[in-house]
Give the backbone structure.
Amino acid sequence: MSPALLVFALLALAALVSGLGSVTSRSVVYSALFLLGALVAVAGFFILLLAEFLGLAQLLLYGGTVVVLIFFVLMLTRQEEGERVDNPWRWGAAVAALLFFALYTFAVLTTPWPAEDPELISIGELGRTLFADWVLPFEIASMLLLVALIGAIIIARARD
Amino acid sequence: MLSVGLESTWLLVALPLFAFTLIVFAGRWLPRQGAFLGVLATGVGLALLALLAAAFQRGGEGAFSVDWLRWAGFAIPLGMHVDALALVMLGIVTSVSFLVQVYSLGYMASEPRYGWFFAVVSLFAAAMLGLVLADNFLVLYVTWELVGLCSYLLIGYWYERPAAAAAAKKAFITTRVGDLGLLIGILLLFRATDTFSMSETFDLAQRGDIAQPLLTVIALLVLAGAVGKSAQFPLHVWLPDAMEGPTPVSALIHAATMVAAGVYLVARALPLFEAAPLALFVVAILGLVSALLAGALAVVERDMKRVLAYSTISQLGFMFMGLGSLGYSGAVFHLFTHAYFKALLFLAAGSVLHSLATQDIAQMGGLLRRMPWTGATFLIGALALAGVPPLSGFWSKDDVLHAVLTYQSPAFGLLALVATALTGLYVARVVLLAFFGGPRSEAAQHAHESPAILIGPLVVLAVGAAFAGLLAPLGVVRALLDPGHPYTFDPGLAVLSTLAAVVGLGIGWAVYGARLLDAGAIASRFGSLYGLATNKFYLDALYQAMVDRVVLTLARLVAFFDRRVVNDMGVDGAGVVTTAAGERLRYLETGKLYHYALLMVLGVVGITLIVLVIG
Amino acid sequence: MLPLSWFLVVGGALFSVGLYAVLARAHAALVLIGIELMLNAVTLNLVAFATYAPGGQFTGQVVTLFVIAVAAAEVGLAIAIIMRLFRNRATVDVDVVDEMRW
């Protein structure tokens, strides 16, 4: 059993358990915490796939900001009585999700993927590529973030 | 001395076309709405023609072509063929157009849409010249239709008058029947020969490379087009009605040029007919019937212009008879002389109309004394028409009769002579009733001579009508058109034809001049025949009934189909179905997010499955 | 080396789990969590492809970076909307926002 295989198996287990826990928990806070676990597992996957920078970025951005934001929301929108967490379509949704997964897996497993050895790329090269070949999408993404920021402020502003 | 080559002949077409464009677009800023441009174009054209004739004299005929459309290894050439026939036609069209336009400067002077008249006449001239020069059936057809369009526009020049509008429609639709035949004939010819070029096609026909009975069918279809345009039986009904147009139009188009296009076509395509003897005979027969029928109708007609219209049909019938008897030079020469004396007669009639404001012969009388120039020129034209020697009509009609008597059966020849006599009869009737005797109305009483600008062209044409015939005994005609058969004077024939003409004139004088016989008594004696003639042998009524019963019923059916099936079901139906579907499908929008998400997922799954199964 | 398809299957599983959350949860924030899971699954797939595709490392990783950035922006906006909803209706149950319908 190679170390890679072991790590993979552990990460996969962690991701799946966290994911399932997140979506079936009856407590909203636990859901958010499980989400954090899933995100960390995915970060682990990134590192396993030799994309270290992305792994770090994942931890910072998702773990650091997205989950925190979700916690904010959960705190600020607490209701007095018990709030409903699941809606009556649960079982239909489960069927649909399973159906989707089945179809997807079938497609993946029946496609002949090329087998290549992965290579590590340096962060420096990644940075250079980002600012040379991808500079336009980069600028547009920054614009997007700005717009999202302004939009969020406007939507969430107190009424005056 | 300027010298041009025959390849510049296209300028003859370009000049009036250019005049048309200028008048249409810039007319309002030009003096007199640009009318002078039309006159100028044809005037310059005449000068150019002289140079071109010199070139022809030097170098013989010429053919030029340039490729127009090209695709898939197949090219449609635009060709120009300048030979003796083309030059004769070019001469006729250019000179008569010029004279008629000069005449119109005065005749149409009080019309508000003055410029438009000259524009369309210029367009007509360009199209007619193009038609004559075409060496390619496609170009011929295009110019053929264009000429028909100009005729429609000019007959309906006074479109505010319902009679004029109806006459224009009738002309267009009747010639359309013929044109359809021509088109089918051209297409069949193309299928048989793989070319639109006239010269190549005629070569193939002469060599026997086109099979019978296809060739006969094609020839008959082409003849159909000619019959329509030249108002021969059975498509003659539009020409008398076309007299609703202004008189210069009648002179130019319906006497000298457009109606001659049919004769030109048959003459040009004579190689086709020579190889299809049945079709050739049909040409001759239709000509004979038209000559007799129209002659008879002219004898009982009261409207001066309509008499001339029937006369045109009749004379064209002579030309067709000549062509059908392989009398190429006779027919073309008769075309030439007829153009001039008929145009003369129409313009003189116009002068009478201008002065009297009526066209009814019964209301005229004694005009020779009051309108001497008009009367004298009319008389010259009328005698030329009757075929009195030594005027032009005699020489050309003689050439035609020579061919007919040589080629056709004696019975045919006899009937042709009867038609000649009929010509004399109606000519005498018109001349005597209009210009001699005493005035039979107020208008005739106060008639006065027309202004010089109207008389000028009349005199020029009268000179032509009188002396052009001498080209025949001088050998020019045969040298140009039929070099293999030089002219020989046939005294027997000359006597015979003159006799026929004199008999007709004599009867006419007896009835209408000296009152030896009473017209009314004759009419009641031949009551049924007279009734038939005055009702134009019920042909018009027959055609109208056909249109009403057959065509309109068909049209109603098609309209129903269009309204209910295509519109209500097809067009509206699409909208109705969409609306109904929408009203039912809107219940899918429940407003709940997860419903939409679920449907999306199901949709994606569904599409993927479909792609997996099919793709 | 580990076969590519394994990574893809894990990604697919995560995606399906997130899909379930979007379809079945009634609290707006929980739906958001589901969306985040789906996005993560997508990035996982992208990076897997990036690593295993010949010459595709740069493209794959850069695109993934952008996806993460956009996801973050989207979360911010979603939060704002949820806050607004809560202020208007005193609840974040997704069933109450059903007025845009027939």
Summary: The helical segments of chain A are 3-24, 28-48, 52-76, 90-109, 123-132, 135-156. Chain A has a mean pLDDT of 87. Chain A touches chain B through ten residues (CB under 8 Å).
